[in-house]
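question for whoever is on the cluster today: can someone run the full assembly for these? two chains, 612 residues total. i dont have access anymore since they changed the login thing
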Amino acid sequence: MTTRKQMLVNGFWSAALAVLMCLLASPAQAQSSLAVDIQGPGQAKMNLVMARPFAGGGQLTPADKLQDLINKDLQFLPFLQLVPPSNVPGQVGGATVDQIDFKPFSLAKVDVLVTANWTPGGNLGNVELRAFEVYSQKVLVGKGYDSVTDAQLPDIADKFCMELMQALTGQGGFFNSQIAFVKPSSGKGTDIWTVRPTGRGLTRVTSYNELGMAVSPSWSFDGRRIVFTLIGSRAHYLGVWSGGGKPQVYTLPSTNVVSPHFLPDGQVAVSLTMQGKADIYLLGAGFQPGRPLTSGGGIKVSPSFDASGHTMAYVSDQTGSPNIYVTSVGGGGGRRVTTSGYNTNPSVSPDGKLVAFTKQLGSAQKVFVLDLGTGQETQVTSGGGSDENPSFSPDGYFIAFSSTRSGGKKIFVTTRHGATPVMIPTGDGSASMPSWGPLPQ
Amino acid sequence: MMRSKMMTLALLVLMLSLAGFGCAKKAGGPGDGSGTSWEEQERARLEQERALREKLGAASAELSQMVNFALDSSNLTAEARQNLTRKAEILRQYPQIKLIVEGNCDQRGTAEYNLALGERRAQAAAQYLSNLGIGADRLSTVSYGKERPLDPGTGEAAWAKNRRDEFRATY
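^ ran it for u. tokens below:
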């Protein structure tokens, strides 16, 4: 009863998910011994075991559900290898350090052990989640939640996994991010939706239905706004959604309004066809065209920027087939960075060092990552179907893309190292054109 | 019945254009704070167009004959030129109507580049009509890229069908 009142008064995270204790040694300490460099060149895997949850109060159903949610979350993290508890002779007598015999885990080369302990309390009960570093027997992450409800279980799983990723890699942005994408609506129309990469929080942003096609969504760097192209019956328009309600629609002096993209400072760049030539323009007041960012012949589309806002990658077909170019936003000519074939859909990593893009191989597209420093191209997706529209996660580690590998178009996540793609749940029907942004802080 | 509907529409269009004049920027209409949503304006445009096409009958059907393109090309074939020449005759016959050219691409490329390519195809047809003496103010273009395939299949037969310009008579 008290808990329910508290919930109403204090809101979700502050009270209902009150952190009971901070069981933990500081994350900095934890990182010193066990750490994954997700920005590095290679990809070592850590073995992780989730022990069977302890449910003293008989909360087997919610305990299993939470276990399953955590398990699904961890499958998005390619640097973790989930080892079934049955592979290690069971020596976990309880959820705390003194009740665990770490030796068998150490012998089995398990790096991380996760325990869950449920005790009676309000609603479903109270739960404590811990992640131990097997080698040092230290607690990497310890979280306690009081009087949890069924609806809170996904958020508890996400928060725990985010802190675990944070402790292991120094970054947990995956669980703190969102993806905008395109879904067909009625008739020939398409609309913009958003979802967290875990598949949670699926939300429809536009409702043009058969009246128009909303395509090419792009997040602002603060995760508060989305720009997109709205294709109407006689022109393209620029759509701007500001975090709630109906998007604003702007008419530009070009019937072609293609691939709008935010700069880190909140300005928008977009490809417009003026005087018969498609160039990328910076939009000024009222989203009207200002300074062009490209020049010369051919079609220029698909601008993408690093987090400093200095580097722009884009597509130009000035030499025939479309290729990726990089230029300084401040001015200067574009430097061609892909050498041959049909290369489109650039996405610059936030640190400006990499460009993810698609290369046409046969009649399908595949995702490649180009190191701007060395010029080295690496193919990161393969297999059946066509892979399009790669988009770097805000932490620069993951890459979302749309793919027909499982039949209809769906959104998948891989990494800059080409980890096995995992599908993002987006509901029924196709999903395409992902754009990855942070959750607003 | 039909008449009163048309009157209402004409009134709506008048109101919209007045609202447009009140605005300093050329943005006139959507998002300009005129109070009419983009959806309402789009519905009005489509309704007025439908009414016009109904009135035109066979001429509208003939104007809507598509034009196809070769792979990676926005060049007009001899057949396409013939088709467009006929459209120019009809447009001369009905000086009150305008034409929207819709550019489309096949499924192989990627979406954003194809939106720009589709525009190139639409402009190729519009330019040809303009060369035949049709005023530029009567011609407009919109690209659907690869977003509206006629045939969603794969293979050259489907791709060839999808590389096209479509045409709509409008007011």
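summary bc i know u wont read the tokens: Residues 1-32 of chain A have pLDDT under 50 and may be disordered. The first strand of chain A starts at residue 46 and ends at 50.
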